[in-house]
Amino acid sequence: MKTFESKYDIEQEVYVLTNKKIYKTSIENIKITHVKPHKLLKFVNKEAVLTDTDGITIEYLVEIYREQQPGCKGVSINYDWYKEEDVFLDKEELIRKIK
User: Fold this and answer.
1) 5-27 burial string, b = 16+ CB within 10 Å, else e?
2) Given phi > 0 = left and psi -120 to 50 = alpha, else beta, which region is 46?
3) Residue 43 — pLDDT band, cuts 50, 70, 90?
4) DSSP H helical segments within the chain, as ranges?
5) Averaged pLDDT, 58-73
6) What distances in angstroms separate CA 92 from CA 7, 32, 41, 74, one per listed residue?
7) How high does pLDDT run on average in the chain?
8) Spatial separation of the C-alpha atoms in residues 57 and 8, rounded to whole Å
């Protein structure tokens, strides 16, 4: 059995970008997927770059939206999965990435 290290921990506060807004949130869950190593086509500065991957994908489930519904006692909460490279401890680091 292999062991994988994730960059962040459950309940750790992080920043993510969604709908052109930066959200401060916390990690609810971690998903690690291990597949056969392969080549991946990424776009960097509008140029296609072919890179090798190790086949390991780490994703974090974070709360991105919370809303009190009018006339209801309950709260609507939306969650989404973010890849490790899209989650940041530092808001300024996230801003540098999107510039």
Assistant:
1) ebebeeeeebbbbeeeeebebeb
2) left
3) confident
4) 91-98
5) 86
6) 18, 26, 27, 34
7) 87
8) 14
